[in-house]
Amino acid sequence: MTAPSLDDERRTRLLAGAAVTLRELSEVLTPLGERFAAAGHELYLVGGTVRDAILGRLGTDLDFTTDAHPERVQKLLSGWADNQWDTGIEFGTISATKAGQQVEITTYRADAYDRVSRNPVVQFGTKLEDDLVRRDFTVNAMAVRIGADGSQDFVDPLGGMDALLAGVLDTPSAPENSFNDDPLRMLRAARFVSQLGFTLHERVHQAIVDMAPQIERITAERVRAELDKLILGEFPIDGMNVMCETGLADFVLPEVPQMKLEIDEHHQHKDVYWHSLTVLKQAVDLEDGDPDLVLRWAALLHDIGKPDTKRNEPGGGVSFHHHEVVGAKMVRKRMRALKYSKQMVDDVSQLVFLHLRFHGYGKGQWTDSAVRRYVTDAGPLLPRLHKLVRADCTTRNKRRAAALQATYDDIEERIARLAEQEDLARVRPDLDGNAIMELLGIPAGPDVGRAWKYLKELRLDRGPLSRDEAEAELLSWWATQQG
């Protein structure tokens, strides 16, 4: 008798673990299976739900497929679901919640695509195999039949388990056909590399290289959603590198591959591209708790201004003067094109703008005024700025790296000491607008704003002033404005 291979043992172990995980959901799965079976319909868990159950990372989303049409599904869920809605009914999907689980049930699909947009011409299928073969990747084309008696039968006609064991993303049909149907699947491939740590099958990689321009058929909103999932994954460097290696990034995030600056023998500098990916990795390592989307984007994009500001200096040096200013503008332009919210654009661009400020600190030469301005300019982004600056240290020189970290320890201690004496989070003038108008005898208008700004700058320079000091300084300043 031949001994079982390691893959066979792992397969058995993973499937057994998935069965245990799904049995823990029997209060949801068993009654639902009974309802569909009693009505003469099939019901299968499918897609990412099955994949994640096998990988031991199942969340609270349960995806099902069935031969029952949407209107029939609505009736079968009535009286069972805690809530249900039909937002996706035009695509055959009915959604519901039950016992804390998000349930989506979609009728078997056998879609055709117009191959101009990504929109499918929805056609309902009649059997499970037709539904599975139209899915994006084989690891998402496994299913578990939910029987009337609570039984669970694993179904894998397309070799999804083999692909999962190998850690490979492959398409059920020819990748060219799959990506022509829906070019977003190319970006999803990079996203799954980031989330699952898998690699692309050679034919999938080549198809993306050949078809990368097709991603421009996809709306900015859909691209943005996939990019966010990618950068929030467990392996964002791998996912981003796949995008750049295949050329996909050239069409959705061209500033990143453009950081691959040529390094010649006379003008040495760091590989900005790999430096940026390393900073992203180190920023991830500094996160507290949940993944931080703002921090991760800022880490990836903090040096995108370098290609446009690169200058070869006499003697073989290289400079990137004001790349943080240029980079912040580039971040705004790219993130607006991707339809990010104003807050997201402001936050990421401000972190990019501020990421070099720390390097002026030297060995503690900053005045208290400079520390206040650093804190004020960062505002609520200060904790993220701390992490970004620390992550930006990628030198292999251990002595230099230790010195940089010690210097940043010092500035954080300076901030803490000042914060004990004054509210650095809310540095405001010592007089408000009403007090300014009353003291100067002026109405509301531009002069009040200028006076307020003067007092704000004074507050940053000197720290908190008494009421008498603030009034005296304001009157003195106002006298100089009347000439």
Automatic annotation (TrEMBL):
Domain of life, source organism: Bacteria
InterPro entries, per database record: Bact_CCA-adding_enz_type3_sf, HD/PDEase_dom, HD_domain, HDIG_dom, NT_sf, PolA_pol_head_dom, PolyA_RNA-bd, tRNA_adenylyltransferase
Alphabetical GO biological process terms: tRNA processing
Keywords: Coiled coil, Magnesium, Metal-binding, Nucleotide-binding, Nucleotidyltransferase, Transferase, tRNA processing
Cofactor(s) this protein cannot do without: Mg(2+)
UniProt GO molecular function: CCA tRNA nucleotidyltransferase activity; metal ion binding; nucleotide binding; tRNA binding
SUPFAM superfamilies: Nucleotidyltransferase (SSF81301), Poly A polymerase C-terminal region-like (SSF81891)
Main EC class the enzyme belongs to: transferase
Descriptive protein name: CCA tRNA nucleotidyltransferase
Native source species: Rhodococcus opacus
